[in-house]
Amino acid sequence: MRPILLLAALALLGAAPASAQILNGDFTTTLAPWTVASTGPTVSQHPTNGNPGGAAYFFYNWGGGGASIEQAFVCGSTHGNGSCAISLDYRFYLAGGAAVQVVVEIDNLIVYTTNHTAESPLWNTVPLAVPCGPHTIRIHANTITLGTFGSWSVFVDNVTAECTETVAEETQAWGAIKGIYR
Predict the structure, then answer these.
(1) Residue 166 above 60 pLDDT?
(2) Do residues 49 and 154 touch, judged by C-beta distance below 8 A?
(3) How far is 156 from 27, CA to CA, in rounded Å?
(4) What is the pTM of this model?
């Protein structure tokens, strides 16, 4: 009876999620351990403009430039095969004819980019998929134009990653399985 229960339990486990190591993806109180780089815009933690709670906050109102936050993480195991589902939320505000570009890179490859030229305070969710294993995520906000007295702000929140490992299944006819345990 125990072998049958074991087989039934294994059959139900076609794939199992594994935890990821993105730290502080909800930006509750700080940007740490994210690495910040900027050629002009201010990057900080905003305590209330998240989805919900805190958020990473990019803001610019003078000149050009861009900014990014970056973090190396391990999504699941480096062994076997599986898919790492990465997700993040962002929203933006524009004023005075400003336009902003939002870019997401995984391992120095651009996997998402979009230009925003009109105000939209709604949250945008970016779903991505990469193989499980070690990765680096970088999220950019870049000035396209500021116009006269223009400004932009981008809020990023809920950066997550979850690896779903694929577990191989051995297929056999029911008669062969019964024969093993007789």
Answers:
(1) yes
(2) no
(3) 9
(4) 0.80
What pLDDT score was predicted for residue 15? 44
DSSP-assigned letters across all residues of 45-101: EESSSSSSS-EEEEEE-SS--EEEEEEEEEES-SSS-EEEEEEEEEEEEEETT-EEE
Neighbouring residues of 144: CB distance < 8 A, sequence distance ≥ 6: 98, 99, 100, 101, 115, 117
> What does the pLDDT look like over 20-62, one tens digit per residue?
589 999 999 999 999 999 999 999 999 999 999 999 999 997 7
Beta strands in 80-175 (DSSP E): 82-95, 99-106, 109-116, 120-131, 133-145, 151-166
Distance of CA 112 to the CA centre of its chain: 11
State the amino acid at position 143 in one-letter form: T
Query: Is residue 177 classed as helix, strand or coil in its secondary structure?
Result: helix
Cis amide prior to 33 (ω within 30 degrees): yes
- Interatomic CA distance for residues 92 and 124, integer angstroms: 9
Q: How far apart are the first and last CA of the chain?
A: 11
What pLDDT shows up at residue 8? Answer: 39
